[in-house]
Amino acid sequence: MDRRMKAAWGRWSLLVGLALLAGACSSTGSLSDSKADFTSIESNMRGHITRLASEEFGGRRPGTDGEALTLDYIEGELSRAGYVSGTNDPGNFWRSPVPLVRTMPVSSRIEFRVGRKRTVLPTAQAAAFTGGRRALIEGGEILFVGKQSASVSDEEVRGRIALMLSEPGQSPARRETLFGKGAAAIITVVDDQQSIDQVREFWENEQLGLVSEEQDQLAGFASAEAMEAALGAKKWQALLASAEAPDFAPTVLDATGTIEAVSERRQITSHNLIGRLPGTKPGSGAILLLAHWDHFGQCGDESLEDRLCNGAVDNASGVALMLELARRLASKGQHDRDIYVLATSAEEWGLLGTKAFAENPPLPLESVVAAFNFDTVALAGRGAPVGFVGEGKTPLDAVILDAITRSRREVGDRELADQFLQRQDGWILLQKGVPAVVLSSALGSREVVDPYLTTRYHRPSDDIDGIELGGAVDDLLLHESLIRRLASIARYP
User: Fold this and answer.
1) Which CATH code for domain 3-93+278-486?
2) Do residues 188 and 221 touch, judged by C-beta distance below 8 A?
3) What pLDDT was estimated at residue 283?
4) Are strands 161-165 and 338-344 parallel, antiparallel or unpaired?
5) pLDDT value, residue 213
6) What mean pLDDT is predicted for residues 409-430?
7) Of 139, 135, 124, 222, nearest to 179 (Cα)?
């Protein structure tokens, strides 16, 4: 947490009691959640999802006709609701450019040498990728860094190949950290052949990266079986055991590695879309709503008859909630604070649109009182617990927990919610000192989210059929009540 957020936390903690008292004196029943109102919200959201996840939009891949259709649709909905362009750029109304680099893997090789033994990992069990045209490290030292919990110094990893164990939800952020510490390359070891197949399916398709972050990073992946064959069963099992020890320390292996990856590349320009509902009290700050509009377009096995990833849940549903919430917030006029609505690009490739927004924001980031991210919301039924992603990370806890209690709902599985902290756009804002959270029934329990992740997530089966919006409507009403409070300087100074 930076000094600005710490200062804000202290200031807001003194005021939050007054804010909650003001909220208590207000009627929480003023927002009708009658059956008719609930049905209307659900119908509007379903209409947005049906349109955004339609065949016409082609899976909403950045840089395609689907992007143009998506942005036109979002702009039209916000404009009709009373929003204006929020880019603060006369040359780019509504759409803020996100310069991207497209890369397509061509070839790769991973090789280990232990003494006189040289092992080239089979292509079916290993692969390497780079955002540059070609990246190569020959005979590099290998540092086994175990799992996410292990402490690794810059000096230990700099210039070496970091060998790490895969952990769902944690690996991308850890790779970014290790590259930031100076790793020459990273090899992530996945559990089994199915896992390596999933890695290859994702990475061997066209990848996107920010032009501003262009680096010839070299990321490799290998199955545990391949690593055991390369290093020897005894040595590999010893490394796995050491990673579980509470006193684990990174280990330089008695082995060297050679990794090479070649890619084709070209530049494109995608866009974030930014709308703004002006407040009546200039200088009092802003509330930010965000959801990523992008998905993969064509995906899945080439043998499938239907390879279109419509992305109905991920994330047409998040955009739908954001649009309906934005409309309802504007329906009764302006608030004290500005309301910004941000539809981000290229989230699926590493939160890239939000990174671009944070690099060149249209408003001072320190003026954002609260940011709410909406992602993959159409999973739970009505009355489901609320997953609170970002709890304990911002000054917003008290007012959010009070709002959840007033909505007669419960906070869901906190351990589960924590696993999604670094996997969503709000993480980028949080790192910049912006109080950013996710409040979602979809992340309140494993019983809700796990079946989706294992059967529909990033697959052609993520379509409009069978989506559940009861919990998402609950979430919308919770956010509406909460944001009306936060947007008022009297109720939230």
Assistant:
1) 3.40.630.10
2) yes
3) 96
4) unpaired
5) 85
6) 97
7) 135
